[in-house]
């Protein structure tokens, strides 16, 4: 039976090129590589996991799907899961904080030279991750935002190259801000409501705190309320 991905992982899968040799870092259950093999998008993958429980769950699911010859499951920290002879050309890192994704990339940076594309799905700190990418010789080639179970998720498709991102780009995402999809607007409307509530609780005499909060609020209003 074909593995059914969450909408979040299905959205990530859309950006995996046909025929890629994939490493999925922090694969947990290994659903993403399994589904990509099953639908013939790819024919080889590595599933890397640093924690024993999820590693064992990945081993179990890969064996159950009868894919031991196509997916190697490795107990490894971050990019230590692959070697040059694996010829990995695409890496996915999904469902972790943006700071942790940047740390994983930084720790194995030299190994990224031979990798063509990174597909990253941070759960938070997207700005921090974009800043790391910009200062380390990577450029965004696409971004996507989607929602599932009342949460918003950003997906970044990254290749080697240069980009210059303003503070606004870092926070909102250059492609997302340009496309200004209904999901993007809903995500930032929700953030706006949160910050406006927080502002209402800051006493009038804490001027610096109020000013900082008002600036954050105004920046969001400018992005979501200006026409495309
Ligand atoms: N990628 C899957 C997804 O998006 O549904 C699983 C996400 S799960 C929340 C995060 C996984 O990353 C956990 O299984 C965790 O053990 C693993 N992880 C965290 N840090 C890691 C690292 N440095 N190297 C490999 N795996 C890591």
UniProtKB/TrEMBL annotation:
According to its UniProt entry, the protein's GO biological process terms are: methylation
Q: Which InterPro entries match?
A: SAM-dependent_MTases_sf (IPR029063), TrmK (IPR006901)
Query: What is this protein's name?
Result: tRNA (Adenine(22)-N(1))-methyltransferase TrmK
What's the source species for this entry?
A: Streptococcus alactolyticus
Please name one Pfam family that this protein belongs to: TrmK
Keyword list, A-Z: Methyltransferase, Transferase
SUPFAM superfamilies, alphabetically? Answer: S-adenosyl-L-methionine-dependent methyltransferases
Care to name a GO molecular-function term for this sequence?
Answer: tRNA (adenine(22)-N1)-methyltransferase activity
Secretion signal span? none
Q: Has keyword Transferase?
A: yes
């Amino acid at each position: 039976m074909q593995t059914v991905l969450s909408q979040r992982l299905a959205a990530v899968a859309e950006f995996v090129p046909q025929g890629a040799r994939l490493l999925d870092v922090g694969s947990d259950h290994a659903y993403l590589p399994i589904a990509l093999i099953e639908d013939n998008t790819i024919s080889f993958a590595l599933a890397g996991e640093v924690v024993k429980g999820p590693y064992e769950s990945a081993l179990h699911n890969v064996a159950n799907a009868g894919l031991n010859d196509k997916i190697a499951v490795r107990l490894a920290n971050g990019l230590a899961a692959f070697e040059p002879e694996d010829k990995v050309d695409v890496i996915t890192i999904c469902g972790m904080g943006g700071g942790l994704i940047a740390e994983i990339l930084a720790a194995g940076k030299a190994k990224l030279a031979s990798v063509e594309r990174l597909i990253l799905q941070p759960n938070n700190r997207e700005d921090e991750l974009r800043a790391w990418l910009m200062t380390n010789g990577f450029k965004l080639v696409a971004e996507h935002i989607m929602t599932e179970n009342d949460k918003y998720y950003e997906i970044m498709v990254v290749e080697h190259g240069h980009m210059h991102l303003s503070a606004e780009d870092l926070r909102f995402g250059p492609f997302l801000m340009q496309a200004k999809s209904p999901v993007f607007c809903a995500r930032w409307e929700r953030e706006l409501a949160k910050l406006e509530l927080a502002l209402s609780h800051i006493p009038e005499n804490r001027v610096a705190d109020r000013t900082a909060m008002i600036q954050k609020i105004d920046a969001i209003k400018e992005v979501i309320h200006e026409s495309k």
